[in-house]
Each structure stands twice: as C-alpha cells, then as structure tokens.
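User:
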Amino acid sequence: MTHPASIRRDHLSTALRLAADGLPVLPLHKGKVPFANCPACLYTSCGGRPHMKTPGPCTCPAPCHGWAAATTAPHALSSHAWARAWRDAAAVAYHPGGAGLTVVDLDTPDAVAWARRTLPATRTVATTRGQHWIYQGAMQSANAVRAGVDIKSTMAYARWLGLGTGTLTALPQEVRALTEREPSTVRPVPCAVAVPARAVEGACRHRTPVFLERGIAMAEQRITEASSGVHATVYRTFLAVLSAHGRCGCLTDAHVGRLFTAAQAKGETLRHCADAWTNARTRLGL
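Assistant: Predicted structure:
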C-alpha cells in the first residue's frame, strides 16, 4: 500500500514537471474539485474585492481561486503557503486555456462515438467515464454543449490523467461551434436589480442621453469582446458604468438588463451578474 505522504510527493512532483513544460497546474481537493475560495475572494476572485479601496489582482498567497490558482511558477507550487493544499490534495489539475489548449470532455460512450464521427482526430486521454480530446487553441468553456460533452478551456480546469495518445491538432470550427448561441436564445435578466435613484439635483449632469447610450454600448462591447477573465471584465465594466452614471439616476432597468444580457451571452450566470452588480454598488457606496 502506498503511504499518503508518498502520494502527496508524487502529486507535487507531477505538478512541477508539468509546470516546467508550460502547463499551469493546481492541486485538486478530495472529490476532484479545486480548493475553495477564501472568504475574502468569493465571487470577485482576482477582480477587485468590495472592501478594497482599489480594484486589482488578489494577493492571497494560498491556491484559493479554483482554476485561477493554476500556475507554472515552481516557487509558488513549492511554497509554504501551498503546503497544506498539497498535503490534502487528491489529484493534479491544469488550466487548459492558460496553456492555449481546449479539452473536449466526453463523458459517455455515445459522446465518444459522436466525436469519432464528427471531430478531427487529436490527442486523446482515457478518463473514468470516457475520453478527453485535446486540441491546440483556446476558446470559451461551456458545460453540456450536447449530451455528455463539456468544453474545458479558458476559466476552467481539467484533471491531469497522463499524456494520452495521438498528436495534437488545431482546434477545429466544429468544436468552437458547440458554444455558439443564436442571439434570440439569450434572455434579458429575469429578476429585479437595484438601480440608483435619481439624484436630488434633478437633471442628469450629462445633459444628453447620447452620452449614456454611448457608455452602455461601449460597456456591452467590452463584455462581448472579452476573450478571457470574463467575470473580472464584467465586474470592472459594471463598476465603470456605475462610476459614470450611478449617482445621477439616469440608469434604468432596461440599461442594466442590456449589461446582464451581454454578460450572460458570455457564459456568466445570473447569480454572478447580480453579485458583480451588488459588489460594484457597494464599492462605490451606492
């Protein structure tokens, strides 16, 4: 029987080897999940926390941000701050998008059969339930893009299960198309959110609705064009909009709905949108 301490050393050795090859890695807790966010970093991890005077990267030394904890820095992986994580680690994971990769996670025999019929051959890794098909190129991650198929790339992690077999090929359009959505399928936010009340002074200090319309359009564009760090981009965009328009009362539910719709189209959940909006209002004292 292998001693637990040997298992931990093996996990760290594997992580250091993968990091040396340019693969951002992180420890997985029991249950094959990342270590939980620390209380100060929930929901706005690495996007500026409400109690901070200025937004910016989180400086927490522990691996507490799920996929965002993945790193290639050997000194971080071997540091005292990570010691407890490796002590309790059950496996090693990596951030595919951080290495310019996309993993097509096939969880059922039917999903594997579909991939063989539909997708170009690439490197494959056997899993407990199916296979990982790994392609060269990063894209937006998404779950349940079809029965038994998840996409793991940016803002996601995949368990390290070995090198696999076959040669990496370029990410095909057939995989990118799995996450594409028709505009009609994106619904406006279905819940009420807090909109700042009109200022006591009355008229909007911007004097013209054109300024507001331009600001909302630019905010939608910023969210839509985000290729990584979507949650942080959403938070900072909400913060910018509220900084410019949150105190004069010119924002309406329709404006907020447009921002939420843009964020949801990028894969953000309604809860994350509402949390980001609330945190931005709290940060500004609205």
